[in-house]
Amino acid sequence: VSNNSRFDPGLWAVVPIKNFDHAKERLAGILTAPERQSLFAAMLEDV
Fold this sequence. Notes:
Mean pLDDT: 84
Protein name: 2-phospho-L-lactate guanylyltransferase CofC
Pfam families: CofC
Structural class: mainly alpha
GO molecular function, one term: phospholactate guanylyltransferase activity
Number of strands: 0
Organism: marine metagenome
């Protein structure tokens, strides 16, 4: 993200997401389900 980027209230985007219960399943060997859900939520905030 550039430092020159600014929030444009007139700009909208629809981002399809998976169900939180199935978020980041490939990380199941490393993270617990709640950890994967938290990671997914944090990643969504960056979009």
